[in-house]
Amino acid sequence: HRDLSGRRFPQGMNAGNRFAPPPADVIAANVGAALAEDIGPGDATASLLEDAADSAYLLCKEDCVVAGRPWFDAVHRALDRDVRIDWRCQEGDHVAKGTVIAILQGHNRALVSAERASLNFLQTLSGTATTTAHHVDAVRGTGTKILDTRKTIPGLRLAQKYAVRVGGGSNHRIALYDAVMLKENHIRAFGSVAAAIARARALHPELPLIVEVETLAQLRDALDTGCTRILIDDFDADTRREAVRIAKGAPYAGRIPLEVSGGVDMSTLRGIAEDGVDCISIGGLTKHVHAIDFSLKLGPPPGG
Predict the structure, then answer these.
(1) Whole-angstrom Cα distance, residue 137 to residue 116?
(2) What tens digit of pLDDT does each residue of 73-86 get?
(3) Is the predicted pLDDT of residue 3 greater than 50, yes or no?
(4) Which of 50, 64, 150, 229 is the most exposed place for a label (fewest CB within 10 A)?
């Protein structure tokens, strides 16, 4: 996808391979920023060490879904291009507490200087993937997809959206450039759902079009006019079920998916999915991050 200036950007709506990370230049920029803020002009403590060959092991200290290997690797290679990293798990693997998931061979100064930045990426992205996996498991068998939102850590949107895919979720739009999303204020400005959709189609015919509706009358307007997906935001349970009945019945036959957002937590998630909606978007996948506990220790792992 290209924006109006012609620059190329990633596109959302779950395009691409689930395990395909963002472009290398995006990862490099993330890593460069992390190392600049952590090391600055130099690691004063690491300079005390003789720059000798050494090894380290990466320990997972709680059950999780692993995500973030490309960033972990890039941090270490930025400081020691010859470092060897032997992973004992794959991206997206469910790993148990106490598992040694990687062995590193390199120079001790580089290993200790890279430790915190590499773990920050791994703990954050594994936390996002693990939280997503819990939500995906909660709706398993219903046919409902779990979507993320734009409520991401500044500067790490593509990284977190990648982690959502690793956890089994799907991406909503990436940003403001790759989909048109008509909300209450936009619809009010145009006077009706149909008028707002017509304007969006005229200006951006190539982009996905998502329309938020607040009433069943607006839902029918969106279904009649046509769009990519309809967001039924903060409908109560009875109204939500009626919305599903309307959208899946004649003459619409479920051609336009319904998305729920707002008022969703683990206690309500399964019930909403069982009502028959197609997607549930959850800001907490990327906003309320529970960082996974990892440690990187010099020397061989316990037991060799």
Answers:
(1) 31
(2) 999 999 999 999 99
(3) no
(4) 50
Residues with a known catalytic role: 116, 151, 183, 212, 233
Instruction: Kindly report the length of the chain.
Output: 304
CA-nearest of 79, 166, 171 to 122 is 166
**Contact call for residues 122 and 72 (beta carbons, < 8 A):** yes
Q: Which two tokens stand for residue 130?
A: 């693990």
pLDDT over threshold 50, residue 4: no
- The HSE-up count of residue 252 (CA atoms within 13 Å, CB side) is 23
Instruction: Look at residue 263 in the predicted model and tell me its pLDDT.
Output: 80
Taking only the tens place, the pLDDT of each residue in 228-273 is: 999 998 899 999 999 999 999 999 999 999 999 988 999 999 999 9
Please report how the helices 216-225 and 237-248 are oriented relative to each other, as an axis angle in degrees rounded to 10: 20
- pTM score: 0.92
Give CA separation, 171 vs 49, 96, 235, in Å.
Answer: 44, 27, 22
**pLDDT over threshold 50, residue 6:** no
Edge-to-edge order in the sheet of strand 258-261: 145-147, 279-281, 258-261, 229-233, 209-213, 180-182
